[in-house]
Each structure stands twice: as structure tokens, then as C-alpha cells.
Amino acid sequence: MKPGIHPAYGPVVFRDRAANHAFLTRSTMTSDKTIDWEDGNTYPVVDVEISNASHPFYTGTARVLDTAGRVERFERRYGRRGAN
């Protein structure tokens, strides 16, 4: 890598305020806010809107769309597509 052109890569805490969930990872993101972590060290903290703790896909609250029903409804309205 070329020296001097890449941002600093270090430990950062990402905090999902909606789910009251935080995790420590490494990132190039920075923040002026800090947090005292479980290991006794202070890390920059980045607040995020959504994480695996609050996203419907990961929490199991996602709605499944009925795509087969939509196709059947379309075919009833406009007829089946003819073979070429």
C-alpha cells in the first residue's frame, strides 16, 4: 500500500441506539464521541440507525412477499403469455 494516503484503521464501537446494542470492531470511521468499553479502554463510538439487533431480516419479523400469488393474479387479469 502507498504510505500516507489511507485512513487510520483502528478499533471503533458501533452502537445501535434503537436496540440498545453495541459491538466493538475495527474500522476507518472516526468520531468525536467516546465510550468506555467492557475491557476498560475508551474507544470512539459511532451511532447507527440499524444493526443486526434491530433489522427485521435478522430478528425474524420480516414480511414475506407472495410473489407466486402476484404472478397468478397478473395472469388472470391479462392472460398467459403466449409461447414464441
Give an overview of the whole structure:
There is one protein chain. The protein is elongated and about 65 Å long. It has 84 residues and is an alpha+beta fold. It starts with 9 loop residues before the first strand and ends in a 6-residue tail after the last helix. The chain has two helices and four strands, in the order E-E-E-E-H-H. The model has no long low-confidence stretch (mean pLDDT 81). It has a four-stranded mixed sheet with strand order 2-1-4-3, with no helix packed on it.
Terminal Cα span: 55 Å
> Structural class, from helix and strand content?
alpha+beta
Q: For the residues shown, what is the average pLDDT?
A: 81
State Rg: 23 Å
What percentage of the residues does DSSP assign to strands (E)? Answer: 25-35%
Helical amount among residues, as a percent range?
10-25%
The major sheet is characterized as: 4 strands, mixed
Secondary structure: number of strands: 4
Outline:
elongated
Low-confidence segments = none
H/E topology pattern: EEEEHH
The strand line-up of the biggest sheet is: 2-1-4-3
Number of helices: 2
Record keyword descriptors for this entry:
four-stranded mixed β-sheet; 84 residues; alpha+beta; 4 strands; 29% strand; single chain
Q: How is the secondary structure organized here?
A:
Elements: E1 10-16, E2 21-27, E3 34-36, E4 42-48, H1 56-59, H2 67-78
Parallel strand pairs: 1-4
Antiparallel strand pairs: 1-2, 3-4
Write a brief caption for the model.
With 84 residues, this protein is an alpha+beta fold. It contains two helices and four strands; from the N terminus they run E-E-E-E-H-H.
